[in-house]
Amino acid sequence: MTLPDQVELDPGSDYPLATQRPELLRTPTGKPIDELTMQAVLSGDVAAEDLRISPDTLRLQAQIAERVGRTQLARNFRRAAELTALPDDLVLSIYNSLRPNASTKQQLTDIADRLEGEYSATLCAELVREAADVYERRDVLA
Q: Is 80 exceeded by the pLDDT of residue 3?
């Protein structure tokens, strides 16, 4: 299987990936994207987990975005790739914690430390720490 860091994508010829480079796309369970057919769904060969985006696909999308100068979008794709390792309820909890006046600086720092320590989500941890600093400056911490 080819990993995102092993392929050089050309946005002009490789995008959209699903039609131009489907051989690079796999589900989180490892199924090739071309195996996601209605027949496979009806026969039970496709599970709910197969319908989620994989971190590798998000990293490939980040590469495309970066190559066309969309650096912020690329960072968002890379953070999303990190988030795929987190349970859904934790993602929702973090989202709610990031609302203005919802958390203390220490609570946000603890979230960042957990993201980094338990999930190796360093880009997401960096974003949470940045939010804590901004919220402190704007006086919107709990």
A: no
Q: Chain-wide mean pLDDT for the chain?
A: 95
Structure token digits, residue 43: 């026969």
∠ CA 40-44-50 to the nearest 5 degrees? Answer: 70
In this prediction, residue 7 carries a pLDDT of 86
The encoded tokens of residue 38 equal 């209605």
CB atoms within 10 A of CB 46: 19
**Position 130, amino acid:** E
Rounded to 5 degrees, what angle do the CA atoms 72, 15, 62 make? 25
In tens, the pLDDT along 80-135 reads 999 999 999 999 999 999 999 999 999 999 999 999 999 999 999 999 999 999 99
CA contacts within 13 A on the Cβ side of 62 = 18
**Rounded distance between C-alpha atoms, residue 121 and residue 113, angstroms:** 9
The full DSSP string for 64-133 is HHHHTT-HHHHHHHHHHHHHTTS-HHHHHHHHHHTSTTSS-HHHHHHHHHHHHHHH--HHHHHHHHHHHH
Residue with tokens 């390792």: 85
Give me the torsion for CA of 32, 35, 38, 40, rounded to 10°.
-120
